[in-house]
Design a protein that fits this description.
This protein is 39% helix and 12% strand. It has 320 residues and is of the alpha/beta class. The strands form two sheets. A seven-stranded parallel beta sheet has the order 3-2-1-4-5-6-9, with helices on both faces.
């Protein structure tokens, strides 16, 4: 890897942790994000506040950058109601990614790591875990835009012999201060309400923020990562029942999980127009991480439930 790593989305949940870990390993780090850096960006990072969608990137200094890790993008549910159409997702997730990748190629950046989403393969597995060769089955404008970005980037890098593309498809990322769906789930666990997950024995793959950060650095540094695509997840799978029970155990709370039949929850949430919520909470999404482990010698988390209990404790301690 070259002398510096450029991280987009540096003020986000993953970006902050990634930048801090890169600095701790002695890497020169340039961070890019829309928000003011303030106390958000870790010490040791050269930070640029920049709107990648609006900026003229041909004037952006990429000298001495050996790798770009592209985390920035429009996530599902972000951008307000007017930002949930496919065109909006394409502008940020496809157009910006191609613009930045073209800049990287022109500047001679050796490796471009694009962080996509496991959702490009769909939202439900039925006994067959997702591998890198699973068919594309995007089910939302967000995941469709991520798939399109992947395909366009692959075409772009085919004509760039001096630069390499690496694609990473993570599932739900968990950590004590995670936003989005996991943030909502940990807040729900930190309540005294009985929750309807007592017989919810689905099988879901998650990825720990610490292990994802370690994997992204491997993608930036490992000689075998260039030109590869990876699905990445913890080695153990957990049910929603186990997730909530583990979080509550760490918080010192009783489980209080009520045995509500799956078919009843499907009917209730479907009637409320929350079919996606039912899928996320009650359906399977399993990932086979063998390629990530074998090609990059990556060590995933083997005990997701145990990690979740630790996170529950850390969350409770920080909210006393």
């Amino acid at each position: 890897m070259g002398n510096k790593v450029l991280v987009t989305g540096a003020t986000g949940f993953v970006g902050r942790k990634l930048c801090a870990e890169l600095v701790s390993r002695g890497k020169g780090v340039i961070g890019v994000g829309r928000r003011s850096g303030g106390n958000i960006v870790p010490s040791g990072v050269t930070y640029h506040r920049l709107d990648l969608e609006a900026a003229e990137l041909n004037e952006f200094d990429t000298s001495d950058v050996g790798c770009i890790i592209h985390l920035a993008g429009q996530a599902h549910g972000k951008g307000g109601r007017d930002g949930q159409g496919l065109d909006s997702f394409r502008r940020m997730n496809v157009d910006v990614s191609l613009k930045l990748a073209s800049l990287a190629i022109e500047a001679g950046v050796r490796r471009f790591v694009f962080v996509s989403s496991i959702g490009v393969h769909g939202t439900v597995t039925n006994g067959k875990a997702i591998t890198e060769n699973a068919p594309f089955e995007p089910s939302s404008p967000y995941t469709l835009s991520k798939m399109e970005a992947e395909l366009e980037l692959i075409k772009l890098f085919k004509s760039a012999p001096d630069s390499e593309l690496t694609i990473v498809r993570p599932p739900l990322v968990y950590g004590v201060d995670a936003p989005g769906n996991f943030g909502s789930l940990i807040k729900l666990a930190d309540s005294s309400f009985p929750l309807p997950f007592g017989v919810c024995d689905n099988r879901r793959s998650l990825v720990s923020i610490t292990r994802l950060v370690d994997f992204l650095i491997a993608c930036a540094c490992h000689p075998a990562a260039g030109g590869q695509c990876f699905v990445v997840a913890d080695s153990s799978v957990v049910s929603t029942r186990e997730i909530v029970a583990s979080l509550r155990a760490g918080m010192g709370r009783a489980g209080r999980l009520v045995a509500v039949p799956r078919v009843l929850m499907a009917s209730v949430l479907g009637g409320l127009g929350k079919r996606d919520m039912f899928t996320q909470l009650f359906c399977d999404l399993e990932i086979d991480n063998r390629k990530a482990r074998t090609v990059l010698d990556w060590v995933p988390c083997e005990d997701t439930a145990g990690e979740l209990e630790i996170i529950g404790k850390l969350y409770a301690d920080s909210h006393i």
